[in-house]
Amino acid sequence: MAMEQEATYRGTVYPWQCDHVGHMNIMWYVGKFDEANWNLFARLGLTPSYLRSSGRGMAAVQQNIAYRRELLAGDIVEIRSHLLEVRDKSIRFRHDMTNAETGEIAATCEITGVHMDRSQRKSAPFADAIREIALHHLADPAEA
């Protein structure tokens, strides 16, 4: 069963997020992708309350961004996320950032995240309940 294509982030590009040539600066792409991460994680059961109470955390170990189209001040941004792979201690997912008005993909970001024990500062297996939810959210390979 593939994850519903509900947005994991919606926002806008503000003038102060733009660089000297008038495009949204790369630091803001990363920030918006980060906000989408936490919405995706919450859907998988990796909620803030779970992370706090369990002493667990998530850490990005690889992130690859492809910039396709520039975003300008005033553009409306939407990110949809696709869970690509679930392993014992890690997940791999992709965010597609679009200009919500035009539907054009502005950027994509593929991330590998590791589930961590924060006190031991090392990777830890996902709880069975979270792993089960994640497996139900895997993207259909034909759509990924």
UniProtKB/TrEMBL annotation:
Q: Which GO terms describe its molecular function?
A: fatty acyl-CoA hydrolase activity
Spell out the InterPro entries in the cross-references: 4-hydroxybenzoyl-CoA_TE, HotDog_dom_sf
**Name this polypeptide is given:** (3S)-malyl-CoA thioesterase
Source domain of life is Bacteria
Record Gene3D superfamilies: Hotdog Thioesterase
Extract the Pfam families matched here: 4HBT_2
Under the heading SUPFAM superfamilies, the entry gives: Thioesterase/thiol ester dehydrase-isomerase
Query: What organism is recorded for this protein?
Result: Bradyrhizobium shewense
Provide the taxonomic classification.
Answer: Bacteria, Pseudomonadati, Pseudomonadota, Alphaproteobacteria, Hyphomicrobiales
